[in-house]
What does this fold into?
Amino acid sequence: MSAYILIRIQVEDPSKLKSYQEVAPSIIEKFNGRLRVRGGEVISLEGPNENRRIVVIEFPSLDEAKKFYYSDEYENAIKLRSGIADFEMIAVDGIDEFKI
It folds into this structure.
Protein backbone atom coordinates (compact mmCIF):
# COMPACT_ATOMS: atom_id res chain seq x y z
CA MET A 1 0.00 0.00 0.00
CA SER A 2 1.35 3.42 -0.91
CA ALA A 3 2.25 5.92 1.80
CA TYR A 4 2.75 9.65 1.65
CA ILE A 5 4.93 12.18 3.38
CA LEU A 6 3.14 15.52 3.63
CA ILE A 7 5.30 18.56 4.25
CA ARG A 8 4.46 22.16 5.08
CA ILE A 9 7.38 24.53 4.80
CA GLN A 10 7.75 28.09 6.04
CA VAL A 11 10.77 29.78 4.51
CA GLU A 12 11.60 33.47 4.45
CA ASP A 13 14.17 33.37 1.65
CA PRO A 14 13.65 30.47 -0.80
CA SER A 15 17.02 31.11 -2.46
CA LYS A 16 18.74 29.93 0.74
CA LEU A 17 16.99 26.56 0.43
CA LYS A 18 18.60 25.73 -2.93
CA SER A 19 21.34 23.45 -1.58
CA TYR A 20 18.71 21.33 0.17
CA GLN A 21 16.50 21.30 -2.94
CA GLU A 22 19.44 20.12 -5.06
CA VAL A 23 20.09 16.98 -2.98
CA ALA A 24 16.65 15.99 -1.65
CA PRO A 25 15.13 14.68 -4.93
CA SER A 26 17.91 12.12 -5.48
CA ILE A 27 17.54 10.88 -1.89
CA ILE A 28 13.78 10.58 -2.37
CA GLU A 29 14.36 8.61 -5.58
CA LYS A 30 16.90 6.32 -3.88
CA PHE A 31 14.17 5.24 -1.46
CA ASN A 32 11.64 4.69 -4.28
CA GLY A 33 9.79 7.93 -3.57
CA ARG A 34 8.11 10.16 -6.13
CA LEU A 35 7.40 13.85 -5.73
CA ARG A 36 3.67 14.39 -6.31
CA VAL A 37 3.36 18.02 -5.21
CA ARG A 38 6.21 20.50 -4.95
CA GLY A 39 5.12 24.04 -4.26
CA GLY A 40 2.47 25.50 -6.51
CA GLU A 41 -0.58 27.55 -5.71
CA VAL A 42 -2.35 26.73 -2.44
CA ILE A 43 -6.00 27.59 -1.88
CA SER A 44 -7.47 27.17 1.61
CA LEU A 45 -10.93 25.68 1.31
CA GLU A 46 -11.61 25.33 5.05
CA GLY A 47 -9.76 26.55 8.10
CA PRO A 48 -7.13 29.27 8.25
CA ASN A 49 -5.31 30.46 5.15
CA GLU A 50 -2.31 28.32 4.31
CA ASN A 51 0.64 30.30 3.03
CA ARG A 52 3.35 27.70 3.49
CA ARG A 53 4.96 25.73 0.67
CA ILE A 54 3.35 22.28 0.35
CA VAL A 55 5.19 19.12 -0.75
CA VAL A 56 3.76 15.60 -1.09
CA ILE A 57 5.99 12.57 -1.65
CA GLU A 58 4.61 9.13 -2.50
CA PHE A 59 6.42 5.96 -1.36
CA PRO A 60 5.57 2.31 -2.02
CA SER A 61 4.97 1.77 1.71
CA LEU A 62 5.13 3.47 5.09
CA ASP A 63 8.26 1.43 5.79
CA GLU A 64 9.99 2.94 2.72
CA ALA A 65 8.93 6.44 3.82
CA LYS A 66 10.49 5.86 7.24
CA LYS A 67 13.67 4.43 5.70
CA PHE A 68 13.95 7.61 3.62
CA TYR A 69 13.39 9.98 6.54
CA TYR A 70 15.73 8.18 8.95
CA SER A 71 18.48 7.54 6.38
CA ASP A 72 21.97 8.96 6.81
CA GLU A 73 21.58 10.72 3.46
CA TYR A 74 18.43 12.57 4.49
CA GLU A 75 19.88 13.34 7.92
CA ASN A 76 22.65 15.21 6.09
CA ALA A 77 20.10 16.99 3.88
CA ILE A 78 18.22 18.16 6.97
CA LYS A 79 21.40 19.93 8.09
CA LEU A 80 21.34 21.94 4.84
CA ARG A 81 17.98 23.48 5.75
CA SER A 82 18.59 23.88 9.47
CA GLY A 83 17.93 27.47 10.53
CA ILE A 84 16.69 28.37 7.03
CA ALA A 85 13.21 26.87 6.96
CA ASP A 86 10.65 25.41 9.35
CA PHE A 87 9.40 22.01 8.16
CA GLU A 88 6.34 20.14 9.43
CA MET A 89 6.32 16.56 8.12
CA ILE A 90 3.95 13.66 8.63
CA ALA A 91 3.85 10.22 7.04
CA VAL A 92 0.53 8.51 6.40
CA ASP A 93 -0.62 5.24 4.84
CA GLY A 94 -2.57 5.54 1.62
CA ILE A 95 -5.45 3.34 0.58
CA ASP A 96 -5.35 0.54 -1.97
CA GLU A 97 -8.61 1.39 -3.66
CA PHE A 98 -11.24 4.00 -3.06
CA LYS A 99 -14.83 2.84 -3.37
CA ILE A 100 -17.90 5.01 -3.08
